[in-house]
Amino acid sequence: MSSAYIYVGMRHFIDPDFFLAIMPDYLPFHQEAVYISGFFEILLGGMLLFQKSRKVAGWGLIVLLIAVFPANIYLAQNEAAQQAIDISQTAAIVRLPFQALFIGIAFWHQRG
Known about the structure:
The protein is mainly α. The chain is 81% helix and 0% strand. It has six helices and no strands. It has helices spanning 2-14, 16-20, 30-47, 51-77, 79-84, 89-110. Helix 1 (2-14) packs antiparallel against helix 3. It starts with a helix and ends with a helix.
């Protein structure tokens, strides 16, 4: 999980347009939010590697996953966002429950 979060976090800086395309219109500071969430994905993903910081990382990832969920909902509802990242509405909808799985895995990590 650590490497997955670090990789996706790095993608926020390498290809921010991908993430900007799925930002809901009602949220302010789109670019800043993309960079901040990427930073925390890298930081928290790295923290998962160490026993001493794993609990904090798990809770931080839970908060982060909840915070970015509106972008996933927006993607499932918005055809322009789907076209921008070349994903079907069905695939965007199928992705939604995975957020609960990732939250569960983060909860498992924080336990020790």
